[in-house]
Amino acid sequence: MTSTYVEITLEEMRACLPKDKGWHLLIEFGTEHVFGWNIPSCPGLMIKVYTSIKKKDAVGRGKGKDAIRVACVLYKDGDKMGVVRAERVYRTINWRDNLRKRVIATLEQARDRYQWALKTFENNHPSPE
Length: 129
Hints:
2 helices, elongated
């Protein structure tokens, strides 16, 4: 059974990643929109959701043109490091549920990798003493 492509508007994406739950639109560059959510229990970790939405009619690109991407990044001392890159979320009828599942899975992985990420970051960015 093939999945049916659905257009996703900026309004629908904002409703799925609401401001009152801590989500913020970080970047709006051309058609790319990046939403972010800081993980309260892990200072410096942010889950990011990347999606393309055309400005003219505020809908995503056409079928097969792109997918929604989810990742987690560690921000520290003015620098950043990738911690988790999740599977893509395809623009199908179940995109909201699939996006929530990816965000939750990314959150769990990020929490598990937090100490590793801090240690790796410190090893790659030694103090200037």
